[in-house]
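Sequence, please.
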């Protein structure tokens, strides 16, 4: 199976500029393709996983992936999907963000071979060529190939023009992204740009620019946007984004996000976010009822191992097993989300409605009271009754107290 069939089977396909041409591009030799990431934060999040995993699969199929880090374009700000202009980041902040994202890319892709391997991954920074551009020369070389009338038909621009308006600096973004493709073609023979389907207009602009200036054909390929079966944006929780940085989203929390996936999303997530083969995924998809938890555990383990390593995935799995056994001794509760609690706070009784917001199990004390009244809170696996139920020294078991809200939200209070 070639990479394009694989992408379609796994769900990495929305549209392509020329499928037949792309299938024959390169004359049987490895292709070079890129995806751009603007370092607007110091970590990737789950919303980046489809493009990240596409680069992983692209490389494993024998092709060369380029991860383009858009420090230059981030100084402008991509207006795509935004109702207002992005916050301008300082050069120091962008450099800091770049380092965080590089570390995560190096876990997912093999950069060891670099340019000496046919499929060695390459990381580039578009500030290396965008900073040195002479504005007048850029306008004369690139500007004539962009129609303002056509750009105004782009959905991103239409949305902004119908609303709060569009700044001139943002209007330049498609030109810079297109120039990136031109530069990567000239430097590395790059024939393909990939990205989310919201980038389609920017991608076809780059394809057209390379065709006009280099008299050659390059290609664009987009992925579907990252949504759940219900249509909600994937990668969001009550706490916000699910980050790949373990200091922002711990490996245990990352594992929990995937193990709690909706039943209807499990097969799709296994195809997109793991390297399991189709036969194994198809077998996992046949599981029904309570047995589907085994498929979710496999999804959670594999995704966590890819991002954080097998050791962290195993620890997260042990922590989850301990919690779902109700602290019965199966697994290791030390891997569960934990907060240290001063023993003095228990001496006079500590109201559960007071501690739940502190550890993130409720948004407010008012919500905590409602959860208790509704019977949705447990202490040490026993449902509590009474709005003013208080924690006391006798609730400490093996140096800790285990809190639970609903069926899936746990927190361990380590009493010291």
């Amino acid at each position: 199976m070639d990479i394009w069939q694989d992408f379609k089977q796994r769900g990495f396909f929305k549209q392509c500029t020329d499928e037949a041409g792309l299938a024959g591009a390169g004359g049987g030799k490895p292709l070079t393709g890129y995806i751009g990431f603007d370092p607007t934060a110091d970590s990737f999040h789950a919303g980046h996983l489809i493009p990240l995993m596409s680069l992983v699969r692209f490389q494993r199929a024998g092709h060369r992936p380029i991860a383009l880090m858009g420090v230059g374009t981030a100084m402008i700000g991509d207006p795509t999907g935004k109702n207002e202009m992005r916050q301008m980041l300082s050069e120091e902040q962008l450099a800091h963000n770049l380092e965080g994202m590089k570390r995560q890319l190096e876990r997912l892709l093999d950069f060891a071979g670099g340019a000496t391997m046919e499929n060695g991954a390459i990381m580039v920074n578009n500030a290396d060529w965008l900073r040195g551009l002479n504005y007048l020369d850029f306008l004369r070389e690139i500007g004539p190939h962009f129609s303002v009338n056509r750009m105004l038909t782009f959905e991103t621009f239409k949305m902004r023009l119908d609303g709060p308006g569009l700044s001139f600096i943002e209007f330049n973004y498609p030109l810079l992204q297109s120039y990136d493709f031109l530069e990567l073609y000239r430097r590395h023979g790059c024939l393909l740009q990939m990205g989310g389907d919201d980038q389609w207009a920017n991608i076809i602009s780059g394809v057209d620019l390379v065709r006009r200036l280099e008299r050659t054909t390059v290609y664009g390929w987009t992925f579907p946007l990252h949504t759940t079966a219900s249509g909600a944006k994937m990668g969001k929780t009550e706490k916000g984004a699910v980050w790949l940085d373990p200091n922002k989203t711990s490996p245990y929390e990352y594992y929990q996000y995937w193990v709690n996936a909706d039943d209807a999303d499990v097969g799709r997530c296994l195809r997109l976010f793991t390297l399991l083969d189709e036969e194994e995924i198809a077998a996992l998809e046949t599981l029904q009822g309570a047995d589907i938890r085994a498929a979710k555990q496999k999804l959670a383990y594999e995704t966590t191992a890819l991002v954080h390593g097998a050791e962290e995935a195993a620890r997260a799995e042990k922590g989850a097993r301990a919690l779902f056994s109700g602290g019965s001794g199966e697994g290791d509760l030390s891997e569960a989300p934990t907060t240290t609690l001063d023993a003095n706070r228990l001496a006079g009784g500590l109201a559960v409605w007071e501690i739940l917001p502190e550890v993130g199990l409720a948004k407010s004390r008012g919500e905590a009271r409602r959860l208790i009244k509704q019977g949705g809170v447990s202490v040490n696996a026993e449902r509590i009754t009474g709005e003013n139920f208080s924690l006391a020294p006798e609730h400490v078991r093996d140096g800790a107290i285990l809190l639970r809200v609903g069926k899936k939200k746990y927190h361990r209070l380590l009493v010291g």
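The longest strand covers residues 409-415.
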